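Researcher: Let's try something more involved. This one mixes different molecule types, so please make sure each is placed in the same coordinate frame as the others.
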Amino acid sequence: MTTAPPVPAPDAALARRPGSVRFLWLLVVVALLAALMAASVAVGSRGVGWSEIVAALGGSSETIGEAAVTKRIPRTLLAVLVGAALGLAGAVMQGVTRNPLADPGVLGINMGASLAVVTGIAFFGLFSATSIVWTAIVGAALAAVFVYAVGSLGRGGPTPLKLALAGTATSAALLSFVTAIALPRGDITESIQSWEIGGVGGATFDSISTVVPFLVVGFGISLLSARSLNSLALGDELAAGLGERVALARGLAALGSVLLCGAATAVAGPIWFVGLVVPHLCRLLVGVDHRWLLPFTALTGACLLTASDVVGRIVARPSELDVGIITALIGAPFFIAIVRRQKVREL
Amino acid sequence: MTAVAAPPTATVDEVARNRVRRASRRRTVITVLGVLVVAVFAVTLMVGQTFYPPGDVLRVVFGQEVPGASFTVGRLRLPRAVLAVVAGLSFGLAGVTFQTMLRNPLASPDVIGITSGAGAAAAFAIVLLGWSGTTVSVTAIVAALAVAVLIYGLAYKGGVAGTRLILIGIGVGAMARSITSWVLSKAGAWDFAEALRWLTGSLNGATWALTVPALVALVVLAPVLLALTRELGALQLGDDTASALGIRVERTRVVAIVAAVGLLAFATAACGPIAFVSFLAGPIAARIVGPNGSLLVPAALVGALLVLVADLVGQFALGTRYPVGVVTGVLGAPYLIYLIVRTNRAGGSL
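Model: All components are placed in one shared frame. Result:
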């Protein structure tokens, strides 16, 4: 009886990518992001020449072409920031809940931010950008805590099915409150509608500078929690055995992701599925080590949202397609594919 | 010998007595619900800007000319009230069918994306194609069926597991909603209001032309579902148990889905997806009836009652006139949340 040679588990190969492969992918993603940012500045419903682009980047806005490019710069910047925030928030959320379907949209966190902002506009006369960001973050946090608490009641803890159902049902419930508040208030319908549809099209440097402090704190907390997310991935008991303070680590990481997606929602409206697609894609590229995964999801998220924005401008010329619609159309089939791959037992 | 035989006889008697008691409770509940539906229906016909006494209303209903009342009651209130009842019955019946079949009270058609699909198609037809009336209804019906087929097909992997169906429905629903919000972003002010009707549900546009197709669908499809009562009850025990009991699981499921989606689609085409009615009717009926047999009929009656009452509230009880879907949504949302909490804690089904 000779012992059979040990068969390497396919997952192990996937989880441990050699450093050189990761580094290669890092270069590829950074180059891709640079190319997409250039495309986002250059491409739009109005064609512009290279000379105009160069002039506009130099600060000139004399011709119409240069003015168009000048408007595209903050927009590109916002797409990059929001995409990075959502991608990273999704990865952290999936790590914290140990749940492949976690996403700010699926878990109803976006809708919590929506209801908070609409309530603020309708009843408390909130119009300043900073107060809207704070309101959105508080709403997002409340929704996140609520959905997670409800989804983890009962047998088996927070299974993907229970979390997704709790999130969707909560979204539906919150949406009907949003409608009830917005419908009779003709005076504010327009500002609510424009916020609700969102997107990055209306970006200005002012609106960006309002959310940047929140995003910076969110990025910091999330990236620092990479190590504890790695231990949490082993299960709560093992993580505690490794010296991790499980509740604290989980709470901090969740705070980071709520800050990120609350701020992103406040400035760009509810955007679905970026936080779902990006982490899964990145795990295929660099494996499951959160120290690599988290920065990667930020970069890839930025790529995805910038690309969606550019595509939205190209396919619907001369008008444009909102970036949230493109990401949902890309993301929903992806969501379905993940569900189909899971075994029923694990749902 | 007699001493040994006696206890089982007593137990059988007890079981039989319990069964009779439960059946009579079910009958009582159904009767009370039916009477309530008729009463609220009558109130809806009488109350409004001007009040008409029951005598006038009855004469109009039986086709006599009554000055003033003939127009207000016959042309405005009657189609609206009939549509409310028909839509409520359809939503209630379809919703409880899905919930029973998928063994999860949260798996109603509004959550798993079928109504979102119908709504997206209707908004698309109104805003971008400039259609109106019957063509919009047909579009909504075709879209609801197509979405149901799509969800079923995507969830099929050597048989359909309920959990997979629900999650895939959530994904498809998200896609449909993003299409709707894209369409709405292109809408002018008038179209926007019209299209919003397709998102929340409203009886304001009720006419006989809209009501009759929904009524016909109800008359044709409701018996199909009622005939499946026994099979649906067995499906609630789990697919394996059901097939051990001699139920053809896949066939039952396909027939039930087609009939329920048909009901939903025709009702949605007439008045939009009235929020949460198909979701709430089943669980409320379950609370009232208790574990006493099929929920199909009680849930349908609860649905009709919900729509009638919510429409009365939306029209007269509040300062502004709200469409019925907003009222059911706001009333339904807290109950929905309570229900999720309770379901998850118990880990059980309906």
